[in-house]
Amino acid sequence: MKVLTIKQPFASLIANGYKVYEFRTWKTKYRGEFLIHAGLGIDKEAMKRFEYLNLDYPQGKIIAKCNLTDCILIDDNMKKKLKELDPIVYKGAINSNKTEYGFKLDKIKKIEPIEVKGKLSFWEYNL
User: Fold this and answer.
1) Rounded distance, CA 117 to CA 76, Å?
2) Mean pLDDT for back-to-back runs of 10 residues, the chain (127 residues)
3) Residue extents of the structural domains in the chain
4) HEC profile for 14-53?
5) Do 110 and 15 meet the contact criterion of CB atoms below 8 Å apart?
6) Is 8 exposed, middle or buried (0-12, 13-18, 19+ CB in 10 A)?
7) In angstroms, rounded to a whole number, what is the distance separating the alpha carbons of residues 79 and 70?
8) Domain range 2-119, CATH architecture
9) Are 13 and 19 in contact (CB under 8 A)?
10) Nearest residue to 65 via CA among 39, 37, 38, 35
């Protein structure tokens, strides 16, 4: 099954249903199920921003399964939509000047954590 490694706290925000878009500088034609891997990397500023949620932030573990339904260029209209959805969760994408794509996620489900080393881009793991 495909897996995507994501920094914390963003992996846990997805696993707990707070975040339904994941952002990358590259686009994908892939649609379908994949696993969310919480990488070893941490965004310290974002961790402080989400302290109030009292979530667990595992590292180096697959923590959720979801479905990728679309890959959307983040233009001004999409930034406006993200701001309406949640300006705190999507702050980075809203304020970014880079060309980015939003991977639209649904059917997000937490799973029992599986310890495994992550990789760049989509990678394969036998579940």
Assistant:
1) 36
2) 98 98 96 98 95 96 98 96 95 91 98 95 92
3) 2-119
4) HHCCCCCEEEECCCCCCCEEEEEEEEEEECHHHHHHCHHH
5) yes
6) buried
7) 16
8) Roll (2.30)
9) yes
10) 35
